[in-house]
Specification:
Layout (H helix, E strand, L loop, with lengths): L17 H9 L6 E4 L8 E4 L3 E4 L2 H4 L14 E4 L14 H6 L5 E5 L3 E6 L5 E6 L6 E7 L4 E6 L4 E2 L1 H7 L3
Parallel strand pairs: 1-4, 4-5
Antiparallel strand pairs: 2-3, 5-8, 6-7, 7-10, 8-9
């Protein structure tokens, strides 16, 4: 677990194309935690090239054969794209596809994600999922994607420290 006062090394990667995403993903095998902070839905996440572009990453992330994308040994992947873990599409959404490509836990939302400053937590930022959705879910793959287990967390607001606790970090 990361204790209060300890520093954490981070890096930010700009993803202007699918090729840059694949290249960066394949180089992250030594990372513990990855956060994908972009727009999206249950079928897409975005890259930002010369213009806003929706990329259907499910086409390249399918659990059965995946040219170019390696399975990573990550403890946690948090996807902040809206509806990336949509419960009604749990057998085919982006979160499930990523769960097949990592050994760790994937956390994704069932609805629209918006950052919220929580005054009762001393101004810390949480990511809130809109009303009318299930909220945050976890996806965990076993046996290289042959089974993916989905768990409803029962909350609509999460902070990074809470997500790290889910993965026992």
């Amino acid at each position: 677990m990361i204790e209060k006062g300890n520093s954490v090394s981070t890096s930010v990667h700009f993803m202007p194309s699918v090729q840059s995403f694949v290249s960066t993903w394949n180089s992250m095998s030594s990372r513990t935690v990855v956060v994908i902070n972009t727009h999206g839905d249950c079928d897409h996440i975005c890259t930002y090239g010369g213009m806003y572009e929706m990329i259907n990453l499910r086409d390249i992330l399918g659990c059965e054969g995946l040219p170019g994308i390696q399975r990573n040994n990550l403890a946690l992947l948090w996807i902040l794209a809206c509806s990336s873990g949509h419960y009604d599409a749990r057998e085919s959404n982006i979160a499930r596809a990523f769960a097949c490509k990592t050994t760790g836990l994937v956390v994704a939302s069932d609805g629209i994600v918006e950052p919220t400053i929580l005054s009762y937590l001393g101004g810390k930022i949480a990511f809130k999922v809109t009303t009318g959705s299930i909220g945050w879910l976890t996806y965990k793959s076993t046996n290289y994607g042959s089974s993916v287990y989905v768990n409803k967390l029962g909350t609509k607001s999460l902070r990074l420290t809470e997500v790290l606790q889910l993965a026992h970090l």
